[in-house]
């Protein structure tokens, strides 16, 4: 799949990608075993583990969770609320997936237990995936790396622009050895597990992915007949998305594309990610 590089080289970007047929497991890729930082794609793992524990009776989905100023990280959903609130943990999981709510991700992770999240890759045989924790844990590491006292101070520093992108890229959040990490091949294998897993669990995770309001990078050039499901993640200089495309003829393709832009041309890189996804589906289908 050297052709994938042709989409990104003119943009000054590097990409890693993989596609897998969800029925028979066949896959092809480009740099598919390279480590990629997950950013908000980790929320897909949190969602799966949460829904599994609900199915096993370990978590009451209606259990109320109190959200206070100390929990809020800023951003979408409850992360940007101005007032304290109380929401059922199930609805927090939905917000985490649908609007990439970081505070919701933290609170759901507390419900499932960080140990359960960290042990998930081993339970599923994902040898190149390492899960460290929720968004708050990653941001706390960034604050320590920058010598900043706490997350509130970090938010002020980031808002003021006093830390450069180059400085941020030297922190743990950008280092595959110190953050949530996987590979494109592991990510499509995980999606195969999600789609083919226990019916009720898989159905709810699919529904959340289908209602994602942020991202949609890979589906921009998808044929209108394709039904896409996705989960995206971003950092300055790093763009991710994993997706499943369901075709009218019954084909189901899991796709993972990660790109590292070096310029401010994120929209062009996102379009290249969609071109790569389409090329991967065409190549896989041609090999049938």
From TrEMBL:
A GO MF label: hydrolase activity
Gene3D superfamilies per the UniProt record, alphabetical: DD-peptidase/beta-lactamase superfamily
Protein origin, superkingdom: Bacteria
Signal peptide: none
InterPro entries: Beta-lactam/transpept-like (IPR012338), Beta-lactam_cat (IPR045155), Beta-lactam_class-A (IPR000871)
Keywords: Hydrolase
Domain Beta-lactamase class A catalytic: 18-257
UniProt KW Hydrolase keyword: yes
The protein's name: Serine hydrolase
Organism annotation: Glycomyces rhizosphaerae
